Amino acid sequence: MNSLRSLYILMLCLSLMFMGTGCWDQVELNRASLITGMALEPGQNMKYRVTFETVNALETDPNKGGKGGTPTALYTKEGNSIAEATSRLNESLERMPLLAHIRVIIIDEKLAREGINQFMDVLQRNRYVREDVLVLVAKGYPASDFLKTVYARGQYASYKIQTQVETYRQVFGGIPRSHLYDIAQALLTEGRVLMLGAITISGDVEKSESLDAIKTVYPAAVVRTAGAAVFRGDKLIGYLSNEQTRMVMLASDYVSNTLFSLPGPGGKPTSPGAIGVQFYHMHSHMHVSMDGDKPIFKLHVEGDGKITSIDRNIKLTKIQGFNTVEQLTSDYVNEKMQETFTYVQKEFGVDVFGFGEHYYRYHFRKYKPLAKEWNTLFSRADLDVKSDFTLRRPDLKTQKIEKEGIGP
Amino acid sequence: MTLSKVNTVDTFTLQLVFLLSTSIIFGTPSVVPDSWLVGIVAFFPACLLIVIYSTMLALQEDRGLYPMLEKAWGKVIGKGFVLIYSTYFLYIAARNIRDMIELIMSTLLRMTPVPLLTTMFVLLIAYTVLGGLHAIARFASLILWLILFMLLTLAILLMFSSSIILEQMLPFLSKGMWPVVKSAFSFSIWFPYGEIIVFLVFQPQLGGAKGFRKITLYAFLSTCIILSLTDLIQIWTLGLEDKKYSVFALLDAARLINIANIITRMDAIIALIIIFGTLLKCTVFLLACTEGVARVFNREAKDFAFPLAVVAGAFSILVTRNSAEHVTEGLKYVIYTLHIPLQLLVPLLTLLLIRIRYRKGATT
């Protein structure tokens, strides 16, 4: 009796163990397909047209290499919601789509102008889509074209775009941080508007779809970053260039590593004698106050860096030399910042810098009555930029190599 | 039944884990912007509960909740109250199981049938209950270290993935102090602090009135600190504005962990915390429930462990149809119809009755 009872218990435990192993949603690897990129466009017959990039895993193997097939295959589906298009993907695809490895989501310009908040929910709600997925705006080309540009490294397009955008942001800072998570943050926070990274294509997309396109040293089409897409609410209103984006991001303290090229004497950007200064640690602090009904913004930028190139004769063995270059950098950054600020004020009239957010967070009671009209206030605000740069060392040479001459 | 006392440290850890377990995830509802303050505000009135409970204990020589009820209300009504309290504890246990299942279903196991998960979990709870209070208390210290270690890991990982932005907790008190106080009084006192009433049942094995006062105060204080810190971590990572929208804010915070693209997706940490915490909390409730039922029906408490566990499991599935109903029930109806009467009114009345019926000096 007793042994029978323990047998029953054992059987119960075993059956529970096997049923509870979590295999209820198991998918064999050769029956699953990784979705790595998504391009969202307005549909022809339905609301949205979604292009999915699925990876052909064998072809993207960096060690063995493939058999010469394409690294990815694109499938396009239409649906009245993104979720519908996704779940109808199997009308053309044979494997189970796995969304967990999406790297970029590219939004078409037309869709972005209508407002992105109408379809973002599915991406934010889904547990499998990571919070740090890149969401980018396709500037000038249909969103699906970006997934069609193959490139010579044999990897898939979305991997290239993601790595490119992240690296570019680290090295130069010319693209805003546009993770899925940042969208929610920007849309919810008072006093700051949404900026997403923009990408564009240079070259011929038609040629680039074929693998023959990458058998030349000069790729037929290349995806490149195009600064930032500026939104009012959740609707796209325009673009900032790479350099302007860098200034905006610098003001909101998102750039830590960048390089400024100071123009030579003569005033034109092309005049000879440029100086390159590289910064590694940059920080900015803002301060907002109201003067009547006109906001006064104060921005303090500081940086720590070195001199990378110097095409005119400034001696870096002397303190004076460093001071000169620091002063030049300071002037240059102040001027550029001021230029970008006026440009944004005039062209868009929305607070992309986040001055409003700062005011909202630190002076809530003063901000509260102004919340509705902040953007109008922003367009007539004054900016006062101060910068304080420290150049630490001149790398390996003390000055530009130049024959000093021994003459009298 | 052995009546040897559980030592003080074990009692403290038991109470602390009990208080922390589900409230780490479902702690303060994000109805007010400064939710981290709610826990701190609720701490002070919650201490009044300690005073009430310990006075009750002191009045009749630390005999525990059930004998006390019978003594105050008489045999028949007292037994009725014992049954009510048992059902109440069983109901809370069921709700906690549901809390955990909700989290697991939406994060870890999406396809696994709910009844299967619940069955396995309640069998585990019943087995733990059979171990008795001593075993549970020792088990608690293990869980406490686990929970604290994981929370610390979470905080450190978030820090290294530079997700913690202190600025996001501003503006401070944007809606004033009133919503915070209101939320503290209508919610946080009763859950988790008020649920400590279940420990009155075990007083013969715990410290008694004096010990209870001291240990519970420390447990409340630690809970207050830990909960406020986890709340702050959530706010620092998600931001005041975004936190409102997440179902499991701590889980959403954990999803943001990304260290050099290698250490990512640490949501399992949160699931582990909640699974272990709920296990302990449900065990405590179920143990209290079995003792009450055993008292009314004059049977061994152990006989009831498995049947009642299965009832709690079934009830956890049947209790609500969807998560919205579950949350509304928890935040609104349970507080006013169950928590406030059973945590405050009945104990107060009992206290009054004992005072009236047994004057000072009169022996029991």
What can you tell me about this protein's structure?
With 408 residues, chain A is of the alpha/beta class. Chain A has helices spanning 2-19, 82-87, 109-114, 120-125, 143-148, 157-171, 180-188, 205-208, 242-251, 319-347, 355-362, 364-367, 374-379; strands at residues 32-42, 48-55, 72-79, 96-98, 104-108, 134-138, 195-203, 221-232, 235-240, 258-262, 275-291, 294-310, 382-393. In chain A, the strands form 2 sheets. In chain A, strands 1, 2, 3, 4, 5, 6, 7, 8 and 9 form a 9-stranded mixed sheet that branches. In chain A, strands 10-11-12-13 form a 4-stranded mixed sheet, with helices on both faces. The longest helix of chain A has 29 residues, at 319-347. Chain A is globular, with a radius of gyration of 27 Å. The mean pLDDT of chain A is 84. Chain B is mostly helical and 364 residues long. Chain B has one domain (8-353): Amino acid/polyamine transporter I (Up-down Bundle). Chain B has helices at 8-20, 23-26, 35-59, 65-73, 75-107, 114-130, 132-160, 178-188, 208-238, 240-243, 249-255, 267-297, 305-318, 323-357, and strands at 258-259, 263-264. In chain B, helix 6 packs across helix 12. The longest helix of chain B has 35 residues, at 323-357. Classes of the chains: A alpha/beta (408), B mainly alpha (364). Chains A and B meet through helix 7 and helix 11 of A and helix 6 of B.
List the helices and strands and how they pair.
The complex is a heterodimer of chains A (408) and B (364).
Chain A: H1 2-19, E1 32-42, E2 48-55, E3 72-79, H2 82-87, E4 96-98, E5 104-108, H3 109-114, H4 120-125, E6 134-138, H5 143-148, H6 157-171, H7 180-188, E7 195-203, H8 205-208, E8 221-232, E9 235-240, H9 242-251, E10 258-262, E11 275-291, E12 294-310, H10 319-347, H11 355-362, H12 364-367, H13 374-379, E13 382-393
Chain B: H1 8-20, H2 23-26, H3 35-59, H4 65-73, H5 75-107, H6 114-130, H7 132-160, H8 178-188, H9 208-238, H10 240-243, H11 249-255, E1 258-259, E2 263-264, H12 267-297, H13 305-318, H14 323-357
Antiparallel strand pairs in B: 1-2
Helix pairs in contact in B: 1-7, 1-9, 1-12, 3-8, 3-9, 3-14, 4-5, 4-14, 5-12, 5-13, 5-14, 6-12, 6-13, 7-12, 9-11, 11-12, 12-13
